[in-house]
Amino acid sequence: MIHKDASDAVLVKEYMNGKESALEILIERHQQRIHGFIFSKVLDRDITEDVFQDTFIKVIRTLKRGKYNEEGKFLPWVMRIAHNLVIDHFRRNKRMPKFQSRNDFDIFDVISDGEDSIESLMITDQVHLDVKRLVEELPQDQRDVLTMRIYKEMSFKEIAEITDVSINTALGRMRYALINLRKVIEKHNIVLT
Fold it and tell me: Which of 6, 45, 49, 103 places its Cα 20 to 30 Å from the Cα of 114?
């Protein structure tokens, strides 16, 4: 009998050794957080459910093949899979949130979870402030490229023309912006979901 309080690492090992119930415990343990993360990106309950199921199909396949090696980091690994599947969804549907100009961008359009509870509004407000602070910490050139690429859906060619730099420089600035955001998020242990 597997204990419900067992660590993720123990449950993963048990599942890989053939105990199906270990995966049920892992899914139950992390379902709400993964669901919330996916929904905050796609803003659609049906798509959220599809991506969630695809995520765990991928998790199961990886574990069954014995290819899992993220010892002790099960949730971040699953979140990374979910994140990649969300990106795949948007690529397939060529649909990202659009904003007319930098001043029209409102983080609430991106992270709204459809609930109007006070708790939900407070959490959303805090995430809004966190994201704004994170982006503001970037150097101006990185902040500009990130805003144009993510929120205005501009191509790197367009960004290069507007900022009067080469495409490679625009790509480099975007890469460094994302690297710097990750560093700040990890440094301050920020959760944006």
Answer: 103
CB contact set of 162 (below 8 Å; sequence gap of 6+): 148, 154
Q: Helix/strand/coil (H, E, C) string of the chain?
A: CCCCCCCHHHHHHHHHCCCHHHHHHHHHHHHHHHHHHHHHHHCCHHHHHHHHHHHHHHHHHHHHCCCCCCCCCHHHHHHHHHHHHHHHHHHHHCCCCCCCCHHHCCHHHHHCCCCCCHHHHHHHHHHHHHHHHHHHCCCHHHHHHHHHHHHCCCCHHHHHHHHCCCHHHHHHHHHHHHHHHHHHHHHCCCCCC
The one-letter amino acid at 128: H
Of 77, 95, 76, 98, nearest in space to 86 by CA: 95
Mean pLDDT of all residues in 148-174:
87
Q: What is the pLDDT of residue 34?
A: 92
